[in-house]
Amino acid sequence: MRKFIFIFILFIGFNFLFPQKFKDLAKTPPMGWNSWNKFGCNINENLIKEIADAMVKNGMKDAGYEYIVIDDCWQIARDKQGNIIADPKRFPSGIKALADYVHSKGLKFGLYSDAGTYTCQKRPGSRGYEYQDARTYASWGVDYLKYDWCSHGKQNSEASYKLMRDALYAAGRPIVFSICEWGTTKPWLWARDIGNLWRTTEDIQDCWDCINDWGGIGWTLILDKQSGLEQYAGPGHWNDPDMLEVGNGGMSDKEYRAHFSMWCMLSAPLMAGNDIRNMSESIKKILTNKEVISLDQDPLGKQAYKYGDFGDYEIWVKFLKDDELAIAFLNRGNRPINIIVNWKNILKKTGLRKNVYKLKDLWKHKIIGNTKSIFKTKITSHDILLLRLKKIP
Ligand code: GAL
């Protein structure tokens, strides 16, 4: 009996801390679009509406993209009661009307705020207004909140994000909670029950491996910082290596294919960051490759781990449902490389030695062999070979 009462109390406590309707959020990594990478502060309601229209028309919605998120700069001040006010010049119809529009397209709507006094672009942050802002967002129909970490002073990160999480719970509308403290206090160690995703690094830049003077870095350098974090990701709580740069013009199609492939291997949130109203066919094909996206959205939710590191050449492995595997062979160097793959070793090391698989090239959309024979190929510079191992019954 005592045991029963104890379990009952535990159950009540758990439900109080983690309301039922928030439980189903982000079971697979969230997919959508965010205004920051391409537009910065140059945003307005027409742009957001056009982006929503484009997402429906260009096949992205059909491929799984869902959230339209407005990043920094939508907010301008607080009124006398402390309510947050949207910039009336850029958002004359108000945020609620915009959220309604996005919802009318069958999509979801997201906003940005900051745990400190100011956002990174010096707009009002939510510090001291957490519960009030959460109620406002819920009343507007917000489905996703990205919560930044500028001007946090001496605030404790875990306590600050917990406070906003509790405010969102109290407001009662299920809102995906995206923690953006750039990995500085290792959120993977404390954020599992606080947010649905947490940034692991500084800001991504639209380049292969550049380092910006204020701290932004290219995607392969971000990739380096994901290795070892795979143990912390899973349904409902994801490592976030930042939004996509695919289509922003700083890299070749081949390089964008590699970037997109690795984000899918990492079970990363797939937030497109380009102008999806005007995309080349090749960029559209990258962002809407359903076979590649299905790695990201695999229900097991296992982030890839680095299987082999040979300097410029890396092998990453991702476990998928039904004992399938995804394998990425990434050439980070400036010269082509010839690779020889002995599947026996890989299958033994991954514990799948009893199975036989077909090799599906997910960019060529072709079966290119099976795991019974040794596989040889060439990978050109800054390119990737992305395979799904499909079980032969
Ligand atoms: C940064 C954040 C970016 C973007 C920017 C807006 O802190 O990492 O993704 O949100 O602020 O000012």
Account of the protein in words:
The chain is an alpha/beta fold. Helix content is 29%, strand content 23%. It has 12 helices and 18 strands. An 8-stranded parallel β-sheet has the order 9-8-7-6-5-2-1-10. A 6-stranded antiparallel β-sheet has the order 11-12-13-18-15-16, with helices on one face. The longest helix has 16 residues, at 2-17. It is globular and about 70 Å long. The termini are far apart. The model has no long low-confidence stretch (mean pLDDT 96). Bound molecules: beta-D-galactopyranose. Residues 36, 71-72, 119-121, 148, 150, 180, 203 line the site of beta-D-galactopyranose.
Describe the secondary-structure layout.
Elements: H1 2-17, E1 31-34, H2 36-39, H3 45-57, H4 60-63, E2 67-69, E3 75-78, E4 84-86, H5 95-104, E5 108-114, H6 130-140, E6 144-148, H7 157-171, E7 176-179, E8 197-199, H8 219-224, E9 238-240, H9 253-265, E10 270-272, H10 281-287, H11 290-296, E11 305-310, E12 313-320, E13 324-331, E14 337-341, H12 343-349, E15 357-361, E16 366-370, E17 375-379, E18 383-391
Parallel strand pairs: 1-2, 1-10, 2-5, 5-6, 6-7, 7-8, 8-9
Antiparallel strand pairs: 3-4, 11-12, 12-13, 13-18, 14-17, 15-16, 15-18
Bound molecules: beta-D-galactopyranose.
Order of helices and strands: HEHHHEEEHEHEHEEHEHEHHEEEEHEEEE
From the 3D structure, determine the CATH topology of the largest domain: TIM Barrel
Q: Quaternary arrangement of the chains shown?
A: single chain
Q: Please list the strands of the largest sheet in the order they lie side by side.
A: 9-8-7-6-5-2-1-10
Biggest β-sheet strands, sense, barrel = 8 strands, parallel
What's the number of structural domains? 2
Structural classification: alpha/beta
Any ligands, ions or cofactors bound here, and which? beta-D-galactopyranose
Indicate the CATH class of the largest domain.
Alpha Beta
Portion of residues within helices: 25-40%
Q: Regions with pLDDT < 50 over 5+ consecutive residues?
A: none
